[in-house]
C-alpha cells in the first residue's frame, strides 16, 4: 500500500468502490482475487478499503490487478489522464508493448515517460496518438507542446492572428480552417476587452478583464476549436 503522491496514477477511488459494489463483492473478495490471480500477497481487505477511501493509492501493478479483480479496464479506475504514463495506464499498456507499438526500443520510451518528455519523430508521434487514442488537447500536453502553444496563442490575440495560424497548425492536430476560425474569434474577443478597458477611462478597470482572458487562453482556444470541429 503506497501513500498518495504525484508519482502515482490519478486513481478514482469512488469509481473503484462503485464497481466493486455493482459486482456485489466485499473488499475481502477483491483482495483475495488480487492475491490469487496476481500474486500480490500484501493486498488485504484493509488495503482495498484504503484505496476506496483515498487514504492510499495503488501502484501501477496494483492498479492492473485491481482492474482484473473488478472485471474492468485500468482506465475505468483512473481520473483524467495528464501525463504520458497516465495515458498509457489508462489504455492498459505495459511499457514494452507501447514502445513496440510506436516503434521505439523499451529503454528509450521508458526514459521519455520517466522524464515526461516525448522525443519521438513524426512517425512515432503519429503512432503514439493513434495507439493511445489521444484527443487533440491531450496530444499537445503529452508531447510537451503546451508552453509553445500558449506563447503562440498569446501573440496571436495581442497582435495580428494571421501569421500564427500555420505555426499553431504544426503543433496541434486540428484542421487549419478550424484553427483560423478559433484564432479570429479569440483575437476579436481580446481586442474587444482591451478596447473596453481603454474606453472606460478612470472607471477602475485597469485591464484585469483582458489579463484574465490571456491567463486562460489555452482553455479558450480548445473550446472554440472543439466547437468548430463539431
Walk me through this protein's architecture.
With 230 residues, this protein is mostly helical. It is 64% helix and 2% strand. The protein contains 14 helices and 2 strands; from the N terminus they run βαααβααααααααααα. It has helices spanning 13-22, 27-38, 45-52, 60-69, 84-91, 95-102, 106-115, 122-131, 136-142, 146-158, 165-171, 176-199, 208-215, 217-229, and strands at 2-3, 56-57. The chain has a two-stranded antiparallel sheet.
Can you give keywords for this protein?
230 residues; mainly alpha; two-stranded antiparallel ribbon; 14 helices; disordered N terminus
In short:
With 230 residues, this protein is mostly helical.
- Neighbour order of strands in the largest sheet: 1-2
Largest sheet: 2 strands, antiparallel
Cα(first) to Cα(last) distance is: 43 Å
Q: Share of helix among residues? A: 55-70%
Q: Calculate the mean pLDDT score and round it.
A: 88
Question: Could you spell the SSE succession in H and E letters?
Answer: EHHHEHHHHHHHHHHH
Weakly predicted, low-confidence segments: 1-7
Mind sketching the topology for me?
Elements: E1 2-3, H1 13-22, H2 27-38, H3 45-52, E2 56-57, H4 60-69, H5 84-91, H6 95-102, H7 106-115, H8 122-131, H9 136-142, H10 146-158, H11 165-171, H12 176-199, H13 208-215, H14 217-229
Antiparallel strand pairs: 1-2
Helix pairs in contact: 2-3, 2-4, 6-7, 10-11, 10-12, 11-12, 12-13, 12-14
Amino acid at each position: 500500500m503506497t501513500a498518495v503522491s504525484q508519482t502515482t496514477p490519478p486513481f478514482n477511488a469512488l469509481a473503484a468502490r462503485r464497481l466493486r459494489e455493482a459486482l456485489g463483492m466485499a473488499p475481502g473478495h477483491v483482495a483475495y482475487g488480487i492475491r490469487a490471480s496476481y500474486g500480490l500477497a500484501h493486498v488485504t481487505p484493509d488495503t482495498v478499503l484504503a484505496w476506496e477511501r483515498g487514504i492510499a493509492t495503488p501502484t501501477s501493478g496494483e492498479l492492473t490487478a485491481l482492474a482484473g479483480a473488478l472485471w474492468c479496464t485500468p482506465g475505468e479506475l483512473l481520473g483524467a489522464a495528464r501525463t504520458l504514463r497516465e495515458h498509457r495506464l489508462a489504455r492498459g499498456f505495459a511499457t514494452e508493448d507501447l514502445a513496440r507499438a510506436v516503434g521505439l526500443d523499451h529503454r528509450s520510451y521508458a526514459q521519455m515517460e520517466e522524464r515526461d518528455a516525448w522525443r519521438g519523430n513524426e512517425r512515432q508521434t503519429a503512432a503514439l496518438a493513434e495507439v493511445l487514442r489521444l484527443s487533440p488537447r491531450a496530444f499537445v500536453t503529452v508531447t510537451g507542446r503546451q508552453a509553445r502553444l500558449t506563447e503562440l496563442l498569446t501573440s496571436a490575440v495581442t497582435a495580428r492572428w494571421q501569421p500564427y495560424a500555420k505555426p499553431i497548425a504544426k503543433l496541434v492536430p486540428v484542421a487549419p480552417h478550424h484553427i483560423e476560425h478559433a484564432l479570429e474569434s479569440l483575437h476579436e474577443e481580446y481586442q474587444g476587452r482591451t478596447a473596453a478597458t481603454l474606453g472606460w477611462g478612470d472607471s477602475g478597470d485597469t485591464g484585469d478583464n483582458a489579463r484574465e482572458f490571456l491567463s486562460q487562453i489555452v482553455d479558450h482556444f480548445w473550446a472554440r476549436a472543439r466547437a468548430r470541429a463539431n
